[in-house]
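Sample entry (160 residues):
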Amino acid sequence: MTSAIFLVEAIIKIIAVGFLFNGRKSYLRQSANMLDFFVVLMSILNIFSSASLGFFKLIRMAKLARPIKLVFRNEKLKISVLSLIRGLPQIFNLLVLLILVYTIFGIIFVNFFKGKLYDCDVSKVNPHFDTSFVNITDIYDCENYGGTWYLLGQNFDTFV
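Predicted structure, serialized as tokens:
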């Protein structure tokens, strides 16, 4: 149904302004109309193709360009999208900078905290055992009291 609406819209525009050789206002001389024509063409090919070949799946994916038509219709939305597209290089530069900063902090925290975020679980040995008066600092102290030395869930043992 929507393909028919887009087809009728394209035909009316082609009749009104000409297809290609009627000057600067011709149908295929404007980028928005080129997108419209591409979407209509892909919709027609999709309707008449019943095979599920890879090419026809690509045609179905091309129909996803229909929402882009909304951008060309609304001037404020068009300005916003174009601003976002023009800002992509700066956004990419910021992303590279943030990855660099996270990498530096990741290396620093791995150097400071690797192997230090372990804990001793002695509750399975004796549930009434009070560890407040005992200083368990490493795996050997923990095993001497019969506990289990385990790695906490959040740690800095690896960078990844």
